[in-house]
């Protein structure tokens, strides 16, 4: 399975949008980078689906442009005018050449989902490898209205419970892609470290 970050050259704030190539070509999140649909088009003529980890603005800003260009199916947990398929906890969905389980992971956003296969994790914003707060395991922001640190903690625990030991790569909504072996860590180590940091209940970005 080939995964390409189609927002890698963005000069605006955006999430990481990942093009997953294989038997079923899928875009995970759309980002906010103008022209992202043209970047996708340099890699494929056909986009089967877009899967949204959640609907914060930095993840769906260019969804209209992508849908207009490719007319893909759109999968999301929460209602959206362009949604064609609803995602629910425990669903299975094929990205590229791998089958992923949908894991509802709220806290950063009520509709947040992560996608877990035997080899890969698309974690959205619930857990990232590095984000400016922590360099080797961080959790999603929970300081805005409607967000919840307690729910993020529960989501990280659930994700660990449902994460196969064979998962080798984590594609997060922000920061770098993580591959097991980096710094001697596994994907599970990164999530466990993010959970421990979230459980401290301290502000993620302390005041200077």
Compile the SSE list and pairings.
Layout: E1 2-5, E2 18-21, E3 26-28, H1 36-41, E4 49-51, H2 57-60, H3 63-70, E5 73-76, E6 85-86, E7 92-95, E8 98-104, E9 113-116, E10 120-124, E11 127-128, E12 138-139, H4 149-161, E13 169-172, E14 178-179, H5 187-199
Parallel strand pairs: 3-4, 4-5, 5-6, 10-13
Antiparallel strand pairs: 1-2, 2-3, 7-8, 8-9, 9-10, 11-12, 13-14
Tell me about the largest β-sheet.
6 strands, mixed
Give the CA-CA distance, first to last residue. 42 Å
The shape is globular
SSE series: EEEHEHHEEEEEEEEHEEH
Radius of gyration: 16 Å
Please, how many helices?
5
The CATH level-2 architecture is identified as 4-Layer Sandwich
Structural class: alpha/beta
CATH domain class: Alpha Beta
Query: Could you tell me the mean pLDDT?
Result: 96
Low-confidence stretches: none
Which percent range fits the helix content?
10-25%
The amount of beta strand, in percent, is 15-25%
CATH superfamily: Ribonuclease Z/Hydroxyacylglutathione hydrolase-like
Number of domains: 1
Number of strands: 14
CATH topology: Metallo-beta-lactamase, Chain A
Keywords: Hydrolase, Metal-binding, Zinc
Protein name: Hydroxyacylglutathione hydrolase
GO molecular function, one term: metal ion binding
InterPro entries: MBL_Glyoxalase_II (IPR051453), Metallo-B-lactamas (IPR001279), RibonucZ/Hydroxyglut_hydro (IPR036866)
């Amino acid at each position: 399975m080939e995964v390409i970050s189609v927002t890698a050259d963005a000069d605006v704030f955006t999430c990481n949008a990942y093009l997953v190539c294989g038997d079923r070509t899928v875009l995970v999140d759309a980002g906010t980078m103008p022209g992202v649909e043209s970047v996708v088009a340099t890699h494929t003529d056909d986009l089967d689906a877009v899967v949204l980890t959640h609907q914060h603005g930095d993840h769906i800003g260019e969804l209209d442009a992508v849908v207009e260009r490719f007319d893909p199916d759109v999968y999301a947990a929460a209602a959206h005018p362009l949604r064609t398929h609803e995602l629910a906890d425990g669903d299975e969905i094929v990205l590229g050449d791998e089958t992923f389980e949908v894991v509802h992971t709220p806290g950063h956003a009520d509709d947040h989902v992560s996608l877990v296969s035997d080899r890969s994790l698309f974690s959205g914003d619930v857990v990232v490898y590095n984000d400016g707060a922590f360099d080797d395991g961080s959790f999603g922001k929970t300081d805005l209205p409607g967000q919840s640190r307690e729910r993020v903690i529960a989501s990280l625990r659930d994700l660990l419970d449902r994460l196969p030991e064979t998962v080798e790569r984590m594609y997060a909504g922000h920061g770098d892609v993580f591959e097991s072996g980096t710094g001697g860590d596994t994907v599970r180590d990164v999530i466990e470290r993010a959970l421990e940091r979230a459980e401290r209940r301290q502000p993620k970005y302390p005041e200077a």
